[in-house]
UniProtKB/TrEMBL annotation, chain A:
It comes from the Eukaryota. Residues 68-216 form the UBC core domain. This is UBC core domain-containing protein. Residues 1-25, 251-286 are annotated as: Disordered. PANTHER family: UBIQUITIN-CONJUGATING ENZYME E2. Residues 8-20 have a biased composition (Basic and acidic residues). PROSITE patterns: UBC_2. SUPFAM superfamilies: UBC-like.
Automatic annotation (TrEMBL), chain B:
It holds the Pfam family DUF5917. Residues 833-924 form the FHF complex subunit HOOK-interacting protein C-terminal domain. Residues 484-509, 549-569, 619-640, 678-697, 775-796 are annotated as: Disordered. Residues 488-501, 685-694 have a biased composition (Polar residues). Residues 626-636 have a biased composition (Pro residues). Residues 782-793 have a biased composition (Acidic residues). This is FHF complex subunit HOOK-interacting protein C-terminal domain-containing protein. It comes from Ilyodon furcidens (goldbreast splitfin). Belongs to the FHIP family. Signal peptide: none annotated. InterPro entries: FHIP, FHIP_C, FHIP_KELAA_motif.
Length: 286, 998
């Protein structure tokens, strides 16, 4: 799998080191005030009053609204990382943080060996809107997956999307569960539901067929043209060996990295104590 | 002379000459030369014994030189002949390669056998052992040691005369000799560092001397604090020995036990410190700390810093016994006896200067052990019963340069990411979680998924500063923000300017659908980027901390107030600290201060307050500046009653002045309400300070106590102020109380005081009661703003009308009070977030009257605090959903207060928005200057010398606006600060939750 895994965040973290002790004045004194004038800044010709229309009632400036959304999505993404969902990989698209590409690996059960690519669409009024949509690239044969659009019936699990309670990782988790515990009530694919109830053998063979179909399209170009779209290619040592190497050595890297660019804090507090300089190597006293 | 010739000779040339020559020939030449030399030597030898030279161990230097005089001067031609021969011999020796398997070369062997060096040394002793002679000998050895191709020092016949020479130089004062001596010593140390096996020999040799054990080392010590290259070389040489000591315990023990190295170093600091200017010339009002280009102009300071740097280096490389000893000497020999008193000098300038020095020292020290020493001095040392830290914190609130410099010092302190510092400054007050409602504790760790706090903070942006209002380039409102580079030419020009930022930005999965139709505040991106940097470096730094401070660890139950408090009379200390501040202020009334408008000039008030502090009505001798004539005696009620009345009036007026001061108002209202209530009930309960011994005073009582302490800061500093009461009251004649009665006296005072309050309350009528009730409603975040408005609307005129004392009694002593009532917190169970936070917030509250640079420092410190990842601190500063105890002031509340002030101001001044635009333009120009200067000056290093810009390259003063219009600049800064805080809050919601192994 050669998914485009370069994440901006990690790069930033590694370079994100400032010598803060250099001067008692704010290191970024300047940033405090105002941004510099871009060299060739073309004056904005559109009337500035446009923004004021978006002035919301509580005084929040609409100018910042997109930042809130962006950070809410970032927060969601860090949550996904934290959950370490088995067999699920997602990546926000390059073009929009509201669109995430994903792939799910099914490791046992009826759908064993299935590799299903999908896209998550998050409503732009997140988190106050509907639940995110999850659409499989190829409609998997499944009672809860629309046989035409490939959309998973997310709504049944998240009838109302509740901020602070519902998170995108839960949707992903749900997408995984669906393949291990088949639910046939109110199906989007009645055929699959009926077959599962009446003729499991036929259902099974249909599933196997569907899995085969999906896997046969694995190396296709991504459905959506985006630099961060997940794409698969056959194993090519010239390309993949090095990446694999890096993935396996990655775990050691952070420590080495820490030694180099450490902004080291100080502490002489003995764990469990709240007294300063309570450690053994405490300073001299008069 | 000889040696100089040798030294100047072209070594390579010589080597070339010698190269083809076989060693045999060299040896023969050497022997021939030596034979000639010996001839001359023996001719003048008093003993005339050619073959058996007396052991040098017997020959003392003095006998040698006296011998010289006995036998008369040596003819010059003979002396120069010897020189010539020796010169050639040395060349031969130097150029000789060592034999097989490290054996001596034949010449060296001959030198050792014949004891050549000793005899040469004796020869120079025989002649008059002048400085020139020493110089000559020193140079000779310097050359030999430095350039010889085989190890020489292993051989006693070479080492011993060297040591003799060195010890003979120990007392010399001639600069040339000293320089050469240090050079040689440095060279020897280099050899030692390369080949520690010689070390043993040095010890042995000097044992023969019976004198100091490790001569090389002892000789270097006097040069430790020397200026110029000699000092530098000596320090370098010593450092070589120090790093040697790290592996060689013997050296370490010797240095620590048998030498005065550490005491000399530490006391040297004290000596150098005493020659520093006691008062610094302050270049401008913006000045807040010593920058490099400033201290470089002060030679004494450079010298001090050199020595401090040396201490730092020694601690870094030396054996731990030396390190520990040095650190202890610095603590007990410099910090305690010198720096502590210096921090408590009598005039503002002196104290300010010391503070600036301390700040500079802290910034110069890098070694944790030394830093620890300085920090423990600040955090734990008590000078005359007051923690240095308390004193420093209290000084933040002084309106002069001292306040600014103190802010700068704390900026440095916070920048250490030091748990101990943060614990003492802030965290210990937050650990018990008393500052929030009990039900809120779970919120501490809660994650702000949807930037709710950021939104609330940004919503405080004054309407006059709305990003939608200002024209470009002041605000870059743009919709290109989330689109990709390359798609818009405009964006790529942005990239040039802010390359670092845009590079990071590029490649992020941003949305072109998000915000494509909305104008965005582009500058906010910079804040986000900065926030990201400062938070992530802070998170990384705090990994060494002992606890996460997340409201669970350390457990709040375990550290209730009192447990954390040191067992000491807290309030007394604070009082003393404050008193000192007040004293400092006495001789420094600055007429240049703006005429007292709302927050009036603090000077007078401090004076007043200082008077009342001592519970002494008029201290005529100590307050010569007091314009008020001494009160005629016995014209009215007893003095202490007058005093109380005055204080009471000050209380009322003070609260009037601090009308926005939520906390104080609550206390005052509580107090008044309490009086009302007790009047109704015919006062059955005695809310007196003497109840301090009772286990748990009720909340109402507590607030009364606090209220009283507000009013009568000194005398009735209830509760644990007893100690101070005793000492204070005891001294007063009019109180005629002895130690035993002290508390009774205060009871008495309290009772009378209540009366006074009663009268005031009854005069003002029911209005206050209503207000009071409103205020006492539980504070919910939603209601905050309305309530503040209500408070502002309250009419205080009845009080002011009553006031008999004119202007001069107006006091922002709320600010000091707040601090004071704060730091005596341990005893009251009243929620309190510590004096540091209090002082910062109260200065922030006065943002509109602060100068630009004070506000820059202040907001900088707060932003830095907000970047700390500890949930306790983060939630306290940034979580706008957290519900605090009513008496706790939050950053958000203060910001809301400032916002309201700004809105009022903007409403009543027509030209305000124009002024804002001018100020924005000016700040933008300043900013651009800063960035370009930054680029050119520090292209390679990432050290930002921000002060340089502040000082040197200020843009021309804004035309349409004076810098004195602080409120205008403060308004601009305020709205920028909101963005900064909001950005920090947003980044916290991401960064603090990224799994560490990522």
């Amino acid at each position: 799998m050669s998914a485009n895994t370069s994440r901006k965040r990690t790069d930033e973290e590694q370079s994100g080191h400032v010598d803060q002790r250099a001067s008692p004045v704010r290191t970024h004194f300047g940033k405090k005030v105002l941004p510099p004038i871009p060299k060739n800044a073309t004056p904005i010709t559109k009337p500035a009053s446009m923004g004021s229309a978006a002035h919301s009632a509580n005084g929040t400036h609409a100018s910042y609204g997109p930042f809130y959304l962006e950070y809410a999505l970032l927060a969601e993404f860090t949550l996904v990382i934290k959950q370490k969902l088995p067999g699920i990989y997602v990546q926000p698209s390059y073009k929009s943080a509201l669109m995430w590409f994903g792939v799910i690996f099914i490791r046992h059960g009826l759908y064993q060996d299935g590799v299903f690519k999908f896209t998550v669409y998050i409503p732009d009024n997140y988190p106050d809107g509907e639940s995110p949509k999850l659409v499989f690239d190829i409609p998997v044969f499944h009672p809860l997956v629309d046989p035409v659009s490939g959309e998973l019936d997310v709504r049944r699990a998240f009838t109302k999307w509740r901020r602070n309670h519902n998170h995108i990782w839960q949707v992903l988790m749900y997408a995984r569960t669906v393949f291990y515990k088949i639910n046939t009530t109110e199906p989007l694919n009645p055929e699959a539901a009926v077959l599962y109830e009446k003729d499991v053998q036929l259902f099974k063979s249909k599933v196997v067929e569907s899995v085969k179909l999906c896997n046969s399209h694995l190396f296709d170009q991504p459905k959506i043209d985006d630099p961060y779209a997940i794409s698969f290619s056959p194993w090519n040592p010239a390309v993949h060996e090095e990446a694999k190497e890096r993935m396996f050595t990655f775990k050691r890297r952070p420590e080495e990295h820490h030694k180099g660019t450490q902004v080291s804090g100080l502490s002489w507090v003995k764990p469990g104590s709240t007294q300063p300089f309570s450690k053994e190597d405490s300073p001299p006293q008069s | 002379m000889m040696a100089s010739v040798v030294a100047n000779g072209n070594r390579d040339g010589q080597a070339l000459v010698l190269k083809g020559v076989d060693p045999e020939t060299c040896l023969i030449v050497f022997k021939n030369h030596w034979a000639q030399v010996v001839k001359i030597l023996e001719k003048h030898d008093p003993l005339r014994s050619s073959s058996t030279l007396p052991s040098l161990g017997v020959l003392s230097i003095s006998s040698g030189s006296s011998g010289g005089s006995r036998f008369g001067p040596i003819p010059g031609d003979e002396a120069s002949a010897v020189q010539n021969y020796v010169e050639h011999m040395l060349f031969l020796l130097m150029e000789e390669e060592s034999g097989q398997a490290g054996a001596m070369g034949p010449i060296l062997e001959f030198v050792v056998m014949e004891n050549v060096m000793e005899r040469l040394f004796v020869w120079s002793l025989r002649r008059e052992f002048t400085d020139d002679m020493k110089l000559e000998q020193l140079k000779m050895y310097e050359m030999l040691v430095g350039q010889s191709r085989q190890p020489l020092l292993h051989h006693k016949p070479i080492l011993r005369p060297l040591m003799m020479l060195l010890s003979s130089c120990s007392g010399t004062a001639a600069p040339a000799v000293e320089a050469e001596l240090v050079l040689l010593l440095h060279q020897l140390c280099c050899v030692l560092a390369k080949d520690p096996s010689i070390l043993e020999l040095f010890f042995h040799t000097s044992e023969d001397q019976g004198a100091a054990n490790f001569l090389i080392f002892s000789l270097l010590i006097p040069f430790i604090h020397r200026e110029g290259t000699v000092g530098q070389q000596a320090r370098d040489a010593l450092l070589l020995i120090m790093s040697l000591s790290a592996e060689n315990e013997r050296v370490a023990l010797h240095v620590a036990e048998n030498t005065y190295f550490c005491p000399v170093l530490a006391t040297g600091l004290s000596g150098l410190y005493s020659s520093l200017p006691t008062k610094l010339e302050v270049p401008s009002e913006e000045w807040h700390c010593l920058h490099k280009e400033e201290w470089l102009r002060l030679p004494s300071l450079v010298q001090f810093l050199n020595s401090l740097e040396f201490c730092n280096a020694v601690i870094q490389v030396a054996h731990h016994t030396i390190r520990d000893q040095l650190v202890a000497y610095i603590y007990n020999g410099f910090l305690l006896p010198v720096l502590a008193p210096a921090l408590h000098k009598l005039t503002l300038e002196e104290v300010m200067t010391t503070t600036a020095y301390l700040d500079l020292f802290l910034r110069s020290v890098t070694e944790p052990a030394l830093l620890q020493t300085f920090l423990s001095f600040i955090l734990l040392h008590q000078h005359e019963g007051v923690y240095i830290l308390d004193t420093l914190v209290s000084r933040i609130n002084t309106p002069f340069q001292l306040g600014t410099v103190s802010l700068s010092l704390f900026r440095t302190l916070i920048g250490f990411y030091c748990e101990d510092v943060m614990l003492q400054l802030v965290l210990k007050y937050l650990i018990p979680c008393n500052h929030m409602m009990l039900s809120q504790r779970r919120v501490v760790k809660e994650r702000d998924f949807y930037s709710a706090s950021a939104a609330k903070i940004l919503a405080l942006t004054p309407s006059c500063c709305s990003p939608d209002r200002s024209p470009p380039p002041l605000r870059q409102l743009d919709s290109i923000l989330f689109s990709k580079r390359g798609e818009t030419p405009n964006n790529s020009s942005n990239t040039d300017q802010q390359s670092s930022f845009s590079e990071e930005d590029d490649g992020s999965g941003n949305s072109c659908t998000i915000g494509s139709e909305i104008y965005l505040d582009v500058s906010y991106l910079h804040y986000l980027y900065d926030a990201r940097l400062s938070i992530s470096s802070c998170i990384q730094a705090c990994q060494v901390w002992s606890a996460p401070y997340d409201g669970e660890n350390p457990p709040p139950e375990k550290y209730q107030p009192g447990v954390l408090e040191e067992p000491m009379p807290d309030s007394r200390q604070t009082q003393a600290a404050l008193k000192r501040v007040a004293q400092l202020l006495v001789p420094h009334r600055r007429p240049s201060l703006p005429p007292s408008k709302e927050p009036p000039s603090i000077t007078q008030l401090e004076l007043e307050w200082d008077d009342s502090f001592d519970a002494c009505p008029v201290q005529a001798d100590e307050a010569p500046v007091d314009p008020k004539p001494p009160q005629p005696p016995s014209s009215g009620p007893p003095k202490h009653i007058q005093e109380m009345r005055r204080s009471a009036i000050m209380l009322v007026k003070g609260s009037y002045i601090e009308e926005n001061d939520f906390q104080d108002d609550v206390l005052v209202y509580d107090l008044i309400a309490k009086k009302d209530a007790s009047e109704m009930e015919q006062t059955s309960d005695e809310p007196s300070g003497s109840s301090s011994d009772e286990a748990q005073p009720g909340l109402a009582e507590v607030s009364v106590k606090n209220g009283l302490s507000l009013t009568l800061p000194t005398t009735v500093m209830a509760d644990n102020a007893k100690t101070s009461l005793k000492s204070k009251v005891n001294g007063q004649t009019h109180c005629n109380g002895n130690l035993q009665n002290a508390t009774n006296t205060s009871d008495d005072l309290l009772a009378q005081y209540e009366e006074l309050i009663h009268s005031l309350v009854s005069e003002t009528g029911g209005k206050q009661v209503i207000a009071d009730e409103e205020v006492r409603k539980p504070v919910t975040v939603a209601e905050e703003e309305e309530k503040e408005e209500e408070e502002e609307k309250m009419d205080f005129t009845p009080f002011t009308a009553e006031t008999p004392e004119p202007e001069k009694l107006q006091s922002p002593f709320g600010s000091i009070q707040r601090f004071r009532s704060g730091s005596s917190k341990g005893s009251y169970a009243l929620p309190f977030t510590g004096p540091f936070i209090s002082v910062l917030l109260s200065r922030l509250e006065n943002m509109l009257s602060n100068t630009l640079h004070v506000n820059l420092l202040l907001t900088g410190i707060l932003a830095q605090l907000a970047a700390y990842p500890q949930p306790l601190l983060r939630s306290f500063l940034l979580n706008t959903n957290l519900v605090f105890q009513p008496t706790v002031r939050s950053l958000y509340q203060v910001l809301a207060t400032v916002k309201n002030q700004i809105e009022e101001l903007a409403a009543c001044r027509k030209d305000f928005s124009e002024l804002i635009t001018v100020a924005q333009h000016w700040l933008l120009a300043r900013e651009t200057l800063f960035i370009t200067a930054d680029k050119t000056s520090s292209s390679g290093s990432n050290k930002h010398e921000g002060g340089k810009i502040l000082k040197n390259s200020l843009p021309p003063k804004p035309k349409a606006i004076s810098l004195d219009q602080t409120e205008v600049f403060a308004t601009v800064l305020f709205s920028e600060f909101l963005k900064e805080l909001a950005a920090i809050a947003q980044e916290h919601s991401i960064l603090s939750y990224i799994p560490m192994e990522e």
